[in-house]
Request: fold
Amino acid sequence: MRETYRLIVTGILATIALAPATAGDWVQFRGTAADGKSSEQRLPITWSPDTNIAWKQDLPGKGWSSPIVSGGRVYVTAAVPIEGAGKEDLSLRTLCLDAKKGTILWNTEVFPQDGKTAARIHGKNSHASPTPVLVDGRLYVHFGHQGTACLTLDGKVVWRNRSLTYNPVHGNGGSPICVDDLLIYNADGGDSRFVIALDRETGQLRWKTERTWPTSSQFSFSTPLLITVKGRKQVISPGTDAVVAYDPADGRELWRARYKGYSVIPQPVYGNGLVYVCTGYAFSGLLAIRPDGQGDVTDTHVAWSTKKSVPYTPTPLLVGKELYFVSDAGVASCVDAETGELHWQERIGGHYSASPMYADGNIYFQSEEGVGTVIKAGKKFVRLAKNDLQDRSLASYAVADGALFIRTEHSLYRVQAP
Reply:
């Protein structure tokens, strides 16, 4: 009888551990569905350092990973100077905060960074830029070429993997995604380019697919996207000069679309039977691709394309039949997602790295200068508010429990109406 009871309890606990994140969570880059959209309502559209701020918590060190939120907790990563050590000797850490109060619950070192061997980073980058992902009661953190790790939700390290090294050129950037029992990320360096799948349970390499096509400038920083087409999973992974769909089970290439562009950063977007991909620097463009082909689909499956004010860094945002995007220079656009026809284009001011977010009929943009611009979603441009936190900001929004979570250079804010 006791054994039966034990088995029942064990089964219940396993079910709880494997339960998906709730609708109000935001568990990876661009949200639980990786689409930049939230079902939250009555989010504030106005805020300032003294208005609609539930709490503000200063964060140690520097990091541009976007916050994620789950189970009443917020998780971020940071690169923290080591007292008495060299300038680039850093402690690469994961922090957990109470989502209601903003207090730091735990702060765990994941990796030490040796400044003598650390790669140089771009002036806009940090040594802690990839966003964590939380699945099945485990937190996965990624520091690019510095390594990847799995933590429990109380901050204990389950495994570390530092074996997959490459030259990242401008530092780490793209975030990992979880697909079934795998953790998948892009590793497009200056010396080698590949896509990696780690076993989520052990951190061991499950597959590694090299990108072998010739390029002039190899490096890119995009986050892959999981989609399902006709019942079949595909991992859409942009890199320099091409976007590739991989079979997540074994890393086999399914289809490829060629373009010209390097340092590709935006995550792909999927909807209306199309994958939307930005092509990076040098030949910046945006392609809408039908993902049901095989082999090289460049000449057969590109439905439409545009080159006008396409972002280098922020990911586009799809809301129904409208595709929104903001260029790094602050020009926002709305186009018909099925045809590419322009509905409107407006300069909203500032410079942009963060990806826009949609909630309750509104689009939220966060500039590098720390200004949040809110517009009404639709085929006509209607600006609702501009909100200045007066601190540099490159991280994207997180949304949960009726609040916006905004990371600036020095602090994390919970923005919420009273």
